[in-house]
Amino acid sequence: MIDVADKPSTVTPSTGTPVMSQEGTRADSPWLRLSPDPEVVRLARDHVLEVLAENDVEGIAEDIRLIVSELVTNAMRAAQRYASAGGTAWASYERPVSLRVICRPLWVHLIVTDPDPVTPASAPADLLDESGRGLSIVDSIAALQWWVKGDHGKACHVVVTHEQVTLKPEEAEMLRERVIL
């Protein structure tokens, strides 16, 4: 149901000078691979809280836990929808959804992947709606959110800044371009 990849994938800045210092960079979590089972949403929330605690991230942990819950739930639904629509179907042991938590001194970067190449649209939801509010919630908390389509689905990137930190436009652009992680 859950699997932590042995080796975290690392991203080395390709060009440019980071606007924010890389000094004091904290450990990155390895990819957490998840099966399309609703029970793993709880495991993903527990995992992110553990990573945040290991990296002394305080003050924003509950917001990040909520975001992870929304993103992993959406990824699970997308994986199931994709399989039902004729995409790849998975055996019970396969894990088509992944989560990674990257902790930095000024922000936390979350990446959630799933096999469905269709990116969802964030639509305003009524406060009384029982579903459909997830991305609106993420938008209201995150400093930055973007989607990247790949050969095998998509990745949702969300950056949450620590309290009292605001991303400058050039920092946001560099994060989107993956120059600074």
From TrEMBL:
Region named Disordered: 1-32
Keywords: Kinase, Serine/threonine-protein kinase, Transferase
Biased composition (Low complexity): 8-19
Gene3D superfamilies from the UniProt entry: Histidine kinase-like ATPase, C-terminal domain
Domain Histidine kinase/HSP90-like ATPase: 35-142
Pfam families: HATPase_c_2 (PF13581)
GO molecular-function term, one example from the UniProt record: protein serine/threonine kinase activity
Protein name in UniProt: Histidine kinase/HSP90-like ATPase domain-containing protein
